[in-house]
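User: Last request for today: this protein with magnesium ion, please.
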Amino acid sequence: MGLLTSTGTPLKWEQAKQYANEVRTLGINYFLSVYKKLKEKENSCLKWGDEVEYLVITYDDETKNAKLLLNIQEIIDELRKEEEEAMKIPNSEETVKTLWRPEYGRYMIEGTPGTPYGGTLKSLLQIEPNMKLRREIVSKFLKPNEVAITLTSFPRLGCPGQFLEPHYEPTGPIARSLFVPDEVINPHARFQYLTSNIRERRGSKVAINVPIFRDKCTPDPFIDPTISKDRNLFPEDKEAAEGAALPNHIYMDSMVFGMGCCCLQITFQACNIEEARRLYDHLAVIGPIMLALTAAAPIWRGYLSDIDCRWNVIAGSVDDRTKEERGLEPLKNDRFVINKSRYDSIDCYISTDKTLKPEYNDLDLVYDQDICKKLMDNGIDELLARHISHLFIRDPLVIFKERMDHNDDEDHDHFENIQSTNWQTMRFKPPPPNSNIGWRVEFRSMEVQITDFENAAFSIFIILLTRVILSYGLNFYIPISKVDENMMIAHKRDAAMSEKFWFRKNVFADGNIPNDGNITQENENLSIPDKEALDSSNNSRLNGHADTNGSISSVEDEYEQMTINEIINGNGDKFPGLIVLISRYLESVNIDVETRCQLAKYLEFVSRRAKGKIKTTATWIRNFVRSHPKYNNDSVVSQEINYDLVKMVEKIQKGQVAVPELLDCFKV
Ligand code: ADP
Ligand code: MG
Ligand code: MG
Ligand code: MG
Ligand code: MG
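Assistant: Here's the final one, the structure of the complex with magnesium ion:
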């Protein structure tokens, strides 16, 4: 969630909201000043980095319980000491190998490489060792019965009984949850106030309902016996009984159920703003595909659910829209009816590339027209102006009073305040102040995998895909409403195997696979496809929407539904497959055999996952639970099943057991 720079007196929602317009104005002024200064900025080198989030677990072997360890701030403080020491030394970049940040859950840590990786193919091979190093470093600060694992959702978060160490009863005034205490939230004021201000802005607790997985002995209808109907501690306690908790669903009422999940994110620097905007668009289409392929979250609040991934749970967990904004009441006090949560898929493409037809932006975009006009009056094109003014329909949620006292257009906090609480599938990141960092794009949909090998494989796949998109001038555009449909499809149980996703039939500029002469890397430098080559491929793309037969096609004819296997591995002559394109790209650049073989291994893993030879983490977890001797076929994931599952996850990540279902013969 970014670095926690803000300190001071946080404001309760009633006071904070009075500053909303001011924060928006200052944020927009800041963006304009960055844009004016840096719109021409060129960064010739690709850089990228991953973010991995970890849950810290403590075992109680006597009671067969795996719990979330709450007091890990001391560990983060220790981890950051090294970082801070090193920062004091000039040119210290090389000495810090890992960076650590707190996250929403008080049991979470986020780890990134110490510095972003550089733009050579060889540097892709640093990812997995660095991820391994991170686990080693964390484990030095843990006791023998504690472990940091990469599991997207903790299965028994919010269950009756003990799931936290130390244990607290769920009676906190901040989230007012029926299921989790406030102690589960990171104690930094930002996280606490995010939670209470979302609840207050919305006018009720968040309400997340995930369909229950119906097993042989699951009661029908399923009415959750663990939801307290008669607690009378907060006015919100009535909500569950008054309709917030749906029958046949797993009901959750607090931000931690979403923001307490772990994910895998990749940020990369483009060589300029145009390239960043292109990658933003094309990767947005890939977002739901990768969500389904990395699906890893089938259990919620102790029940097997009928979904496989986290995204919609997080969307619900931070949905601060009022009833008016959700369209449940006519607009009176609020300005917009808003179709989505702050945490959701993107609503508009932003590239200036001619391949972006207006028809692809087919969602009725909600945006602040005054802000849009101001941006356009200051020289920003309509697409980017709409993107920013769409983000800025939101209110800033956490405001520190002191921050409002001294302000100027160079201050990037106000922009970040709104930008960083728009948690979308992609994030377009402008260069930060006083740095030589360029325009960056973040790919945010993936779920974290159990092993570093898998996390490295998916990171490498995405980085190489960006190279292929740029080098071959690929076009993934489909109407953005279809990308949204794909997001919904991605959540379905076993979507990676059983579902089909909207995808573009022809991803090439002129209908044919471009010849590799267009790719001008003479060495293993990953950075930039040659400008001329790109221009020529752009030109051919400009010549219209002719399909292979030369006839003009309508947008509806451009896409169809494909399985993930077809998208990744191809479908004969019909569609080449992303892995095939990546392999072809790798063959056309000059790399040493060793690097080529290493990369092939990661790609092979992704390919086999897409074929179904390797199960998704979600399917593996579901199968583990359903075949556990103590499982009663009733969708309940008991304390003991959870304990065995977490123990098994630990063994897998350490390479202590072979699990061919999940890893085939790959070594972790
Ligand atoms: P956030 O939480 O806001 O997404 P973080 O700072 O936690 O951002 O992580 C961003 C990722 O971007 C890290 O992996 C980091 O290594 C990487 N990164 C840092 N600088 C650059 C850069 N110039 N270009 C690309 N990636 C970068
Ligand atoms: Mg994070
Ligand atoms: Mg985050
Ligand atoms: Mg981060
Ligand atoms: Mg991030």
